[in-house]
DNA sequence: TTCTCGGCCGTTAACGCTAACATGCCACAG
DNA sequence: CTGTGGCATGTTAGCGTTAACGGCCGAGAA
């Protein structure tokens, strides 16, 4: 870490050369000291470090990366930062990458395939040493870029599909089925769905598909549905709940595509004296921390966000015991957290 | 944007040379085409683009940056991604940078000065063309690095202090005073404070200082306080509110250091039938979207997050009409949003 | 004594690209 | 017919660093 340099702000940016001049050794030796690589005597090491600190020298990784053909960056490409799920995945990634010398670099696609393509291209142009990217669905061009990148790729969040290389995630289809079965088992029969309109949120779509499959298997179906896009999810949850119950007052269960709108719905029900879970049951998805703060715990399903981040990072960092960095598919098991909004049977 | 290449995954990574060979022109011409710079005839342009697409070539920005001494990256260094405030700032930054060719790169410090130093060093080693960094308080080493970087620096969120170069933010001290005055004007007298324990959240500290100043000026003081660290803020808000009201049942106002714990407190009060705002008034800080989803609107103060991100990005991008990129201090005015949790006078 | 060997440090040649300049060509003016 | 200027392209020389190798020197082995 650089300490404050004694010199005034310089015009010409500092190079290894400046440090080498200041310490009377070759640039190569300075480079060795700064990277802790190769043999350097304790005395010169000290001298070089002192000079570097004195000058406030910060190595130029651009030149370093070009010369060494190595870049310590891992691209992490996610759809959004406002959906708390993704910062949590990032936390898992950072944790594992922390002591590997690798560094995550985040790109955000806003659920747009075009932006994903652009972000990916941009990222690849920095020649990262690995890519962690959300989802399995992408444009042919994006897929081709991943296939040709020649670095470890990990597609995360989802395993319902064909990964380019590795995948770490849960089966959203199965998660949807699972919760539907729990709802049916609890005796609910007239079921409504509330979700987002985003056509590119494939995971929400798959959950709904799995959900409907399980209902169908029990001779049931989604009786009414309500969609939204944009805005405060919590508020939308309130509004949508009001709307769907006004339209279909007989519904006895509301399944929300995420916890945030679920929480809004729950607050609305509580505020309007609706008996949860006796008269109406509720469930969301993701297991976000927020639901723990509500007066009544929303049923939800943990999406294993932290673990997904960790496992993905382990793969790109080559940290797995078996050393495998290609062709892996790791399916995690989301746990149903019944909370207080599903009847106990 | 690259389309899918016909070739199989190559061993040797592609270079300009491969494209130049494939299209029968010099590397320089390929470079010109790919960067849209200099004169190239329409015919060769097409030929080159076709070859590049065919091969799936992605330019190597590392080499490009080294040769041109220009890097299209802007480092954005923030304390956290889980506090929704920062993703929102990022949104503002991205919006403005979108059509400038610049790209934000995020670094997270977790409110730790040591990590900030490390992240900053790391970022500087990529020679970004600008830095946007949260807060004004930092280690001497970090400050020195900023001073010597020789690029536009914008310190954001806060203007109560001495910026290294530019600053865009609000005065948290003044914001604290402002809300205290509103509380006093509404007739509240026995005031409690609930906040975070983080010693490095200087902005929360300054708000509290301003808050206490204004109370003192009116002959009042904070009668009780409650601190937390970590965990679900919403849940903590509930618990802390219960604790402080159990200990000091006479309090008639609770000031929360952020909206999240404020929301938890509000939910607790509503759930326990406490008359808000008649018996107890509440206020938070930040104006996060979430509060709009609550059954009753928490009083809050907008921290101008989006605007801060935009203005900061405009400075580093040299987008200001006056062209100034140095020595600016832009103070934004946070608006008090009284909501439903402060008595109307 | 000579020979090896390992620790320490320097030299050279890339890495893949672009700035700057050079070149060839053609149209058009004189 | 020659000169001139602009367009289209090529050539050269780095950018700041590191890989690879080479050299020197002193200590211990033969």
From TrEMBL, chains A, B:
SUPFAM superfamilies referenced in this protein's UniProt entry, alphabetically: lambda repressor-like DNA-binding domains, Periplasmic binding protein-like I
Region: Disordered, residue numbers: 1-20
Pfam families per record: LacI, Peripla_BP_1
InterPro entries with a match to the protein in the record: HTH_LacI (IPR000843), Lambda_DNA-bd_dom_sf (IPR010982), Peripla_BP/Lac1_sug-bd_dom (IPR001761), Peripla_BP_I (IPR028082)
Gene Ontology MF terms in the entry: DNA-binding transcription factor activity; transcription cis-regulatory region binding
Keywords from the UniProt entry: DNA-binding, Transcription, Transcription regulation
Tagged with keyword Transcription regulation: yes
Domain HTH lacI-type, chain residue ranges per copy: 14-68
Protein name: LacI family transcriptional regulator
Organism of this sequence: Cereibacter azotoformans
């Amino acid at each position: 870490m650089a300490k404050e340099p004694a010199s005034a702000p310089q015009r010409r940016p500092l190079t290894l050369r400046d440090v080498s001049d200041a310490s009377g050794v070759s640039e190569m030796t300075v480079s060795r000291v700064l990277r802790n690589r190769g043999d350097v005597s304790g005395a010169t090491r000290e001298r070089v470090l002192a000079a570097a600190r004195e000058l406030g020298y910060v190595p130029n990784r651009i030149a370093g990366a070009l010369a060494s053909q190595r870049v310590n960056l891992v691209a992490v490409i996610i759809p959004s930062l406002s959906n708390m799920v993704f910062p949590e995945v990032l936390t898992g990634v950072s944790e594992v990458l922390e002591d590997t010398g690798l560094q995550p670099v985040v790109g955000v696609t806003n659920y747009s395939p075009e932006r994903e393509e652009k972000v990916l291209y941009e990222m690849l142009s920095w020649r990262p040493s690995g890519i962690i990217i959300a989802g399995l669905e992408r444009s042919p061009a994006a897929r081709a870029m991943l296939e040709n990148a020649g670095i470890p790729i990990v597609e995360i969040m989802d395993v319902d599909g064909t990964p380019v290389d590795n995948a770490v995630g849960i089966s959203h289809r199965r998660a949807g089925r699972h919760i539907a079965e729990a709802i049916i088992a609890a005796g609910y029969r007239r079921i409504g769905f509330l979700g987002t309109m985003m056509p590119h949120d494939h995971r929400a779509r798959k959950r709904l598909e799995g959900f409907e499959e399980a209902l169908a298997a029990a001779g049931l179906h989604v009786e009414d549905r309500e969609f939204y896009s944009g805005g405060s999810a919590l508020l939308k949850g309130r509004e949508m709940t009001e709307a769907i119950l006004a339209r279909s007052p007989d519904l006895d269960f509301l399944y929300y595509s995420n916890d945030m709108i679920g929480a809004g719905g729950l607050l609305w029900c509580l505020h309007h004296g609706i008996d949860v879970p006796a008269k109406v049951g509720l469930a969301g998805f993701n297991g976000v921390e927020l639901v723990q703060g509500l007066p009544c715990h929303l049923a939800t399903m943990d999406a294993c966000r932290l673990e997904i981040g960790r496992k993905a990072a382990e793969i790109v960092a080559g940290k797995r015991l078996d050393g495998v960095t290609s062709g892996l598919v790791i399916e995690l098991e989301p746990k149903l957290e019944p909370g207080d909004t599903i009847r106990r049977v």
